[in-house]
Specification:
It is built from four helices and no strands. By secondary structure, it is an all-alpha fold.
Length: 85
């Protein structure tokens, strides 16, 4: 078993204050906060499921038909109202 020693006084005081308000131990406060932080960082759905969701979104929102326009510098200059070089 490995111990966690909080060397920063402000952090230790915050943990103690929160533990007292919640009626739990400092260990529970730290554990719950770490679990919450970990859950926020971890994806809630597996990667394969995310790919499937993206494929479904792409099917529901297809790209428009090609216009045949060339998207080069002259095209974007015209969009911005600039004179061609």
């Amino acid at each position: 078993m490995t111990s966690l020693y909080i060397k920063d006084n402000e952090t230790a005081e915050l943990a103690a204050e929160l533990a007292a308000r919640l009626g739990v131990t400092k260990t529970e406060v730290v554990r719950n906060l770490l679990r919450r932080q970990k859950a926020e960082l971890m994806p809630s759905t597996p990667l394969l499921s995310m790919c499937e969701r993206l494929d479904a979104w792409r099917s529901a929102h297809p790209l428009g038909e090609p216009t045949g326009l060339k998207a080069d510098k002259a095209f974007f200059d015209e969009l911005w109202g600039e004179e061609p070089d």
